[in-house]
Structure formats: C-alpha cells, structure tokens
TrEMBL record:
Keyword Membrane (UniProt): yes
Annotated TM spans: 12-31, 51-72, 129-150, 171-190, 202-220
Signal sequence segment: none
Domain of life the protein comes from: Bacteria
Protein name per its UniProtKB record: Conserved membrane protein, possible homolog of CAAX-like membrane endopeptidase
Residue stretches making up the CAAX prenyl protease 2/Lysostaphin resistance protein A-like domain: 141-239
GO molecular function: endopeptidase activity
GO biological process: CAAX-box protein maturation
Keywords: Membrane, Transmembrane, Transmembrane helix
Length: 260
C-alpha cells in the first residue's frame, strides 16, 4: 500500500486532472442528458437537482484537490491549503489590481471594436440573472452569489491551490498559467452544450481564460499564495459581463467572451 501511494504521488498532477474531469463531466453530462430529453422527468433546467449537480460539478477541482492533499500530505497541508482562502493581509495594491484589471479588459474590448470600425458605448444593465443591478447593494449581492455558487469559490482550491504550485515547481509561472488556462477552458466544455449558460465560441473562450489565468497566477505569486485574491478576480470577471453591456453599430450588449 505504501509503495502504491508513493507511485501515485509521482503522478498526482495527472491523477488530479483525470479525477477532476471525470467527476465534472459525469455530473454535467447528466445535465446535458436532461437538456436533450433524457432524465428530464427528474432533472430539468434550474430545478433543485439541476442546480445542485451544476454546483457540485463546478466544485470538483476543489473536492479532488482537497482529497489528494489529504491522502498524500495529511492534515497539516490541508490546513495550509484552506488558510490560503483567508489570506487577506496583502498589499492593498493587489486588491486594486484585482478590481481595475477588469477596467483594462473593458478598454481592450473597446479598442478591438474600434479597430473593427465599431462605435462602442458601455451601458449598464438594470437587471442580471434575477438581481437588480441599479444599486450598489444589488451589485454586491450578485457578486456574492457568483463567488459562492458560480465557480470562483468552488474551483480555486483545485486549479490554484493544488495544481498551480505543482506545475510551478517544474515549469515557469507563465507556462504554468497558460497550461492551466487551456485545461481550465476545456474543463468547461460541457457548458457550451447546455442551455442558457452564455458560453459561445470555444476558441475565444480559451484565449480569454488564458489571459485570466495569467493574471491570477501573477497575483497568486505576488501575494504569497493568496487564493482570496484569485477568487475576487474570478468573481469580478464573472460579474461585470452581466452588468456592463457594449453597444455599437454592429454589436449590442456583447460581453468580453463574445468580442474576442
């Protein structure tokens, strides 16, 4: 048993990826089946079972990351991993960077549209995903819901807490970030086939996700491994396309993923 454990430990990155993809794809595959008319008697769009399976599938990276950390390294490393979620004592400039990086992304979108001869205006959507965004409280509530249930919290212990340090121990941070960005994108693949998810072009999504991965990797390293900062970046990135829309001659309320 000890020899088997040591052998598996040398392949823990591969093991993490296989288990994560398998777990998520099974759960989201059930959702896909229900959307195609199979199992829809029990699981249908936005009912309790559907929502639970979607969230559980999104949490697979963290679930597998915690499980493998416990199996290979024990309670001490689990505690260290979980503490990275609450590592908030970092330079305030990193919080500012987490927020204003989105402004930079918006400027990139505007610049790209102008190159295509489009007059771009940024507009505010008054309601998004059932949340009123005409007030600060509404936006904060939407942001909190997204952080808790739409990916940022569910994923980070896996992709950033478990996988990133192991890749960076062997490869350059930039290369590690790009690899995670591509893998992270492909992990979302079932979402492109589910209804009302907002996922469009896979190639465009990979490009944007790699950029986001580079940003989060830089912040993770500069903050000494704060997953909290990475969660905030991901939360803002998921929130602002629901609130801000871009309108112009040829486009109307398109988000970052639709432009690139």
């Amino acid at each position: 048993m000890y020899r088997l454990k040591n052998k598996l430990k040398t392949h823990q990155v591969k093991l993490f990826l296989i288990m994560t993809f398998l777990g998520t794809y099974i759960l989201w595959g059930i959702l896909l089946s229900s959307s195609k008319g199979i199992l829809n008697k029990y699981i249908y769009l936005n009912n309790t079972y559907y929502t639970f399976l979607r969230i559980l599938g999104a949490a697979m990276p963290s679930i597998i990351g915690i499980f493998l950390t416990a199996y290979f390294y024990g309670k001490k490393e689990i505690k260290k991993l979980l503490q990275s979620l609450t590592k908030w004592k970092v330079n305030i400039l990193f919080y500012i960077a987490a927020v204003f990086s989105l402004n930079a992304q918006i400027r990139i979108v505007e610049f790209a549209c102008k190159l295509l001869g489009m007059k771009v205006e940024v507009a505010m959507n008054m309601q998004a995903s059932g949340f009123k965004t005409s007030s600060i409280l509404g936006i904060m509530t939407l942001f909190l819901a997204i952080v808790l249930f739409w990916g940022p919290l569910e994923e980070k212990l896996g992709w950033r807490g478990f996988l990133l340090p192991r890749l960076q121990s062997r490869f350059h941070p930039v290369f590690s970030a790009v690899v995670i960005g591509v893998i992270w994108s492909l992990w979302h693949l079932p979402m492109f086939f589910l209804p009302n998810t907002g996922y469009n072009s896979i190639v465009e999504y990979i490009l944007v996700t790699v950029i986001l991965s580079l940003e989060m990797t830089w912040l993770y390293n500069k903050t000494g491994g704060s997953l909290l900062i990475a969660i905030l970046v991901h939360g803002f990135d998921n929130t602002y396309p629901l609130i801000l829309g871009f309108s112009g001659k040829q486009i109307h309320k398109v988000d970052l993923y639709q432009v690139f």
